[in-house]
Amino acid sequence: MRLLAATLPLYPALLLACARVMPPPGGPEDRVEPAIVATRPDSEAVLSGFEDEVSFQFNEVISEGSSPNFGLGTGDLEKLILLSPSTAVPEVRWRRTRITTRPREGWQPNLVYRVELLPGVADLSGNRSVRGSVVTFSTGAALPNWTLHGQVVSWATQRPIPRGLVEAVLLPDSLSYRTAADSAGRFVLGPIPPGEYLVFGVLDQNRDFRWDRREDYDTVRVAAGRDSVGEIWTFRHDSTAARITTSVVRDSIALGLTFSQPLNPYQRLPADSVRVLLLPDSIPVPVVRILPQTEFDAALRARVAVDTTPAGRVRADSIRADSIARVRADSIRADSVARARRAAEIRIPGAERRQIPAVDTVGRAPLRTKPAPFDKLVIELGAPLRPGARYAIIVRGLENLSRVAGEARAVVAVPERPRADTAAVKPDTGRTRLR
Known about the structure:
By secondary structure, the chain is α+β, with helices and mostly antiparallel strands. It is built from 5 helices and 24 strands. The protein folds into 3 domains: 17-142, Immunoglobulin-like (Sandwich); 144-237, Sandwich (Immunoglobulin-like); 238-314 and 368-417, Immunoglobulin-like, CATH 2.60.40. The chain has helices at 2-7, 11-18, 293-305, 310-344, 361-364; strands at 36-40, 45-46, 54-58, 81-84, 91-95, 98-102, 112-117, 133-138, 146-154, 159-160, 165-171, 175-180, 186-192, 196-202, 217-222, 228-234, 244-251, 254-263, 274-279, 283-285, 287-292, 374-381, 390-399, 405-413. The chain is elongated.
């Protein structure tokens, strides 16, 4: 009874702490996204001694989110605020129709601050904003007038990185200004102070908008007076050399190797950088060349195309049929999209017209300003492999994407040739034919 009497006064506080603001029942369904109607302070203002909060005012009550904002960077609203040049997680507060923020260390004098609210703020009906807002002001320094623009790209996939993190470090002051790329990997960062910048592009896998050294990234140095960053090709920076994870027999004169990480696509190893030894006596086997698997397959298809033997014609017909099938699949997919877009143009009385966005061919098209990395090589030999034998493979000077070179080793076993099945049941040739 004493325990019950002690906890009863706490029930109202607990109920209030767990309560959520919900839209009132009844009435028309809300399908309109929340919109920003005002920001405070005014952008591009000089505010010496500023101690207030930066505020984003919406036209309706917004959702606080399911994850609270405790300063860990995991809160739903914390993930939508980029406050520069501070690198710490800012204080973010929900105030019904407003979001306010400030740096945990306080506003520092003579700095240019850039506070960006990213798209994604939800209202009580679950509608999310598709537009963000930026507030830039000074606490005593000169007003900024510079803007950087570029694109973040994944080197491994050869495609832009949607919502990639961009961090521009002003040199030599090391002031860091951050933003997020759009769905096509493009970014516009500004206004920021002019000067020389070291710009990071990051594949932000955990979506915390902070650079983790385990994430794919790369940097571009932008000289003072330039505003174009160009393409930032992100990749996994690894300080260890690549090793062989799988070795297989491709055919009678070729061995296939798979490596633990992508390799430098600009490097072409000479034949003498590879040693193949027949075990157990370590007899050298001549190596003709070592190629990426894609180039080896292309050369093999070219040889098959000019092969006039019956077997060569069969292989060429098979390759041609596969190509035709891929072209037909692409045509069917394009026709389906076109029919769906034409159907969307038909207005059904009383129904809302469905909008099908056009395909972003610029953002989705592969970029060809850098060769695609690979993790598979093929060694072509000058002598056929012996069935049932084992071979040691040594590759020297192989570089990964970080230009770290090393030596890779592997052992591959060649399968035995299948033997004729002498135990197979033969047809009964001595059986008497019935008449």
